[in-house]
Amino acid sequence: MEANILDNLEVVYQKPETLTDTPFHYCPGCGHGVAHRVIMEVVEELGIQDQTIGVAPVGCSVFAYHYMNVDMQEAAHGRASAAATGIKRVLPDKYVFSYQGDGDLAAIGTAETIHTVNRGENILMVFVNNAIYGMTGGQMAPTSLCGQVTSTSPYGREATQIGFPLKITELIAQLPGAYFVARHAVHTPNAVRKLKKALKSAFEYQKLNKGTCFIEIVSNCPSGWKMNPLDSQKWIEENMFPMYPLGDIKVPGKSTTPSTENN
Hints:
Blueprint: H1 2-7, H2 32-46, E1 52-56, H3 64-67, E2 71-74, H4 80-90, E3 95-101, H5 102-108, H6 110-118, E4 124-129, H7 159-162, H8 168-173, E5 178-185, H9 189-205, E6 212-218, H10 222-225, H11 229-243, E7 247-251, E8 254-255
Parallel strand pairs: 1-2, 1-3, 3-4, 4-6, 5-6
Antiparallel strand pairs: 5-7, 7-8
Helix pairs in contact: 2-9, 5-6
């Protein structure tokens, strides 16, 4: 009887084979799980699971290899793009991507990020920006907003003392080695669809050998921000998007600027 009932149900969503069976451990409301899922859906739909190699460094990103059912390589903090460069040069026919947080990519890994893109390494760099050091205690990151309260800026980030938030995506878009640069989010279904489209293009561009693809994912960190998941999503829309507007920043053959549409 139970089997007959299940047979009549419509399958709305099915976990891709490119994700392992390990349950996500991330904090409730965290965007990492959605980002993992979307990346691996693209890999499955393109049929490149056995040709894809991911590199994850230190931070919450370090757990990616528990969940992504592709070949994965762990890298030292900030060095994921350097490791991915070596892998791609040795195995040029593989699809290679790095998966990095803002404390990693835009702080300790700033040099690796800039020079990887400046050389036009033929990889995809996925940059998850939640404006904070999530794993290590909620410290201020290069992407933390002016006035944002963190464990190391209890009175809010002060630009005259600390500097302004680093818009690393706009910065690297100016480099000639950057082929495709975009910023998307995972806070709504529509935003996820746009991210998935950009990720698919980025993986396909690797076959052209034209340079680095870079996709920023604006996400949340409810635990680090000391908010519940719903409030953190509202905070993204009200505070993150004005500083980090969504959209395609550099598209092959086009001159584009970030969109004002953030849904």
